[in-house]
Amino acid sequence: MNRRKFLNYVGCSCGSLILSSCTTVPITERKQLKLIPEYKLNAQAAQIYEKIKSKEKLSKDKKKLNEIVEIGKKMEDSISEYFYQSNLQDPTTQFDWEYILIDNDKVKNAWCMPGGKIAVYTGILDVTKNTNGLAAVMGHEIAHAVAKHSVERASRATLINTSTQIIDIVTGGKISQVNRTTGMNTVGLLSQLGLMNPFNRKQESEADYLGLVFSSLSGYDIREAPKIWERMKESNKGKEPPEFMSTHPSSANRIKKLNGWMNEVIIEYPPIEIS
User: Fold this and answer.
1) What's the DSSP call for residue 98?
2) φ, ψ for residue 173, nearest 5 deg
3) Mind listing the pLDDT tens digit for each residue in 167-202?
4) Which residues are within 8 A (CB) of 232 and not within 5 positions of it... i.e. 6 or more apart?
5) Residue 224 is a catalytic residue
6) 147 pLDDT above the threshold of 50
7) DSSP symbol at 11
8) What is the pLDDT of residue 181?
9) pLDDT tens for residues 8-62?
10) What is the domain partition of the chain in residue ranges?
11) Of 249, 221, 247, whose CA–CA distance to 136 is shortest?
């Protein structure tokens, strides 16, 4: 089989695989790729989470941890209730929610692993300032898990790796030759700047929007969300990389979009009553 026939054959096979592996993000209805089973990533995340719990210094501030858990529980219930009342499949049915507070004032961050494994660093508390601010941050991180962004990224990486191998075969190994000569992962760099970064920024913006929705459904004041990014922008002191080099939207763009979505979310996703 010559290269052209091989490329056509593989292209058709990959196209069929992609079409059969497309799903839809809840609420935003964006089409996404899902080649990796969710349960596999959830299981891997649970194992990693346990390792993190054993290695990181966990905060002894029970009051703050209880606040984090309370916010999380409200969001758990509100998200499930929203999908129940909307006659839609609950995307959190495979979640085993868990919350930790990591004692590290230098890290202004929080995250939610696949399956609902959540960590908040004490350093972010100076930015969140209050319960509504903390809910905004947690809503954003939970949104990543609800929207299956990790599954999507893993699937995307699988597709890119497969495509790279195909291109390398079709070009007679030219890409591998360039990488060996220059010591640079050419395809990796190009995919990061030209493909993966915009893709990740799309996920971040989606998580910003869904985070507002989940916070509003849970009864929190979502007007605090843009203020967090104002404070984050101030704390970074202009050290943000150019947006095209970053996996996250710039703080200025986030603030603009959050303010633009505000009235719509407040009207369409008011606090939900748990049945």
Assistant:
1) E
2) 80, 15
3) 443 334 433 444 444 444 544 544 443 434 445 888
4) 108, 127, 251
5) no
6) yes
7) H
8) 45
9) 433 444 444 454 578 899 999 999 988 888 999 899 999 999 999 999 999 999 9
10) 3-55+127-268
11) 221
Report pTM. 0.80
Residue 96 sits at φ, ψ, to 5 deg, of -125, 85
- Contact predicate 143/207, CB 8 Å: yes
Q: Which range, of 27-31, 140-144, 243-247, averages the lowest pLDDT? A: 243-247
Q: What is the Cα–Cα distance from 235 to 173, expressed in whole angstroms?
A: 46
User: How many whole angstroms separate alpha carbon 43 and alpha carbon 178?
Assistant: 37
Question: For residues 137 and 143, what is the distance between their CA atoms, to the nearest angstrom?
Answer: 10
Q: Which residue has the tokens 């104002």?
A: 230
103, 238 contact by CB (below 8 A): no
Count Cβ atoms below 10 Å from residue 132 Cβ, excluding itself: 19
What is the DSSP code string of 142-195?
Answer: HHHHHTTHHHHHHHHHHHHHHHHHHHHHHTTTHHHHHHHHH-S-HHHHHHIIII
Question: Of 29, 141, 264, 268, which one is the catalytic site residue?
Answer: 141
